[in-house]
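Chapter summary example: a protein plus 6-O-phosphoryl inosine monophosphate.
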Amino acid sequence: MPGTCVIGLQWGDEAKGKLVDLLTSDFELVVRYQGGANAGHTVVVGDQVYKLHHIPSGILNEQVKNLITPGVVLNPPTILQEISTLRDRGIRVADNLLISDRVHVVMPWHLHEDRIQNQVVVEGENIGTTLRGIGPCYRDKVGRHSAVRLGDMYRPDFREKIEHLTVAKQQLLSSLSGEAVTLDAGQIHREFAQYAEQLREHVTDTTPMLLDAVEANRRILFEGAQGALLDIDHGTYPFVTSSNSSGVGVASGSGVPASAINRVIGVIKCYTTRVGGGPFPTEQDNEVGQHIRDRGNEYGTTTGRPRRCGWFDAVAVRYTARLSGVTFLSLMMLDVLCELSEIQVCVAYKIDGKEVGDFPSHVDDLRRAEPVYETLPGWQQDVSEIDRPEDLPENAKRYIQRIGELIGRPVGVVSVGPDRAQTMFLDAELAETYGKLARS
Ligand code: GDP
Ligand code: IMO
Ligand code: MG
């Protein structure tokens, strides 16, 4: 069976975009199946940096078809901006980008509501969303009465739908914000009818296409957004996103049977970052965290917010690797830790004096979790130019091996910088398939 998934195993920004771009040469289709413009995936090719929010990171490879499938929530002006920016830079975006007519549309009232709700304190903190209207849009999708799907925008009753929804949404936003909110139905309709026209060439029912591809054994790469710890059902609820961002979301978000997925690549940084609120047991709100932030340029791709930084948490990643059915790990940012003389890895938690190895289901317990650390020696050597695994410093090799042991999965890929070339494949078969591209 032909499906490979790339899943972030932490709180997002694990460098999924880099890995997807690199693997793309071996696939016919690349699929984004959940999340929306909250994602920010960076691909670096030589001196060119591409930041993608909706568009799959396969877009830079001309041979590949890129699909956005029903589990995604789509912000039309944002994706149109992405398309035009890519075209301006000479990247072809035409029949190689297909968007399901089943995706839900982020409407202006969703953005408005996200801004209002983001002031609300839950479990003692703000969620700190990306303000891209993700939660309100998914909420309307599940609620069914107030949702807009992309296919609705081509229907004769679209104007009527907008008129009806704006009345209800005005009331909702006014009561949430405590001041009168006016939505101009005519203007919203005109604007979105225009977006519909501009997007028309890309819109189709991707579901039969993807099922045909599965049945024809075509090679499909699924690009996860966010990270498994942000999964709505299995993450650090309520400090999560509103979709299934762990491996369990691939089949439902894309519309393929779970049996079509035969390989899951779990992407991890060799430390941990988080943007927004919520517990983070290994956070280093000190000079170590600042050092990682500076070296790793840890600022949000979508919002520019400084990312919270800390040590690698093997308790959390062991959990998400098991949950996501990970086949092997891709360990990113090895270059970032190169100046540290000692590196800590969290191997267990102590909660109320008791040592636990399972990731807690309630944030209250996670807040009380004290990390139990194992200290490993640093390599204190620049590794960003190294292109053969055997040339890595001994302590870096030891670190990689220990991470694999703690997670219970082999490390198949190591990344030592943002560029395609700064990647090593530890497994001989992977090196054969992808190594040439990485160095081309
Ligand atoms: P994504 O959301 O998972 O695709 O990750 P982001 O693009 O938000 O963040 C990852 C950042 O790290 C991007 O700026 C990448 O260009 C960069 N990056 C990727 N791999 C490496 C690496 O091995 N070392 C360093 N220093 N940066 C990397
Ligand atoms: P990529 O795909 C990191 C976080 C937000 C916030 C929480 C909820 O680039 O890894 P939302 O706007 O989704 O309602 O915000 O989820 N978040 C991300 N953090 N990387 C992302 O995407 C994220 N997408 C959402 O910071 O804590
Ligand atoms: Mg990102």
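Key point: The pocket of guanosine-5'-diphosphate (ligand 1) is lined by residues 8, 12-18, 40-42, 44, 296, 301, 332-333, 335-336, 415-418 (CB under 6 Å).
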